Fold this protein.
Amino acid sequence: MKVDVSYNFMKQHIDRTEAKDIIANNEVKNLPNESKIQILKENYWWFNEKDTINESIEEGTYPKISDNFIELIHNTPNPILTKEAEILLVDYLTLKMKFATNLYLQTKIDIINYNTKNYVIGEDEIAGLCPCCENYSIGYAEDGLWEICPVCFWANGGDGPNHMTLEKAKSNFLKFGAIDEKFLKYINKEAKVKYKKKL
Ligand SMILES: [Zn+2]
């Protein structure tokens, strides 16, 4: 009798958005509380300030959050300690995966779901090339202007904002792994494997 077992090996396709969502939700679960608070304070500094939140929501500059969560912010004295803060943390961690290659996302997905066959598909976001480390790690064209490269810490605005020439930055990157040794502590080790490199 011929048994078709091929379905066991069929990969289930998930798009990049789904993959990022799975990865970010998983990372949030494993994040220590002090890291959560640090992320919220550094990136959503207005998190505990109800008036500023209200203004930001009206201006449309607050991240997309549910009505329930907005209610919660209004009613909870210290929302940083609530589970719902994870909406912002997921938002932050998802943004951190912008421009990451499918291979990077796939590796993460495989670690989370080692016994399933989720296969990440979808086009990479269009990214700009960092002139220093030559990774496609910043916003494309004008979007990437003044952006700081997460791989090498070059600010994409010429020599001025970096206080050094591009040549010096490139040689420092080769030597230290960042345009200046003092920035190493801000660079996530995974940044080096996250992005497409210039061939
Ligand atoms: Zn760079």
About this structure: Residues 130, 132-133, 135, 137, 149, 151-152, 154 surround zinc ion (CB under 6 Å).
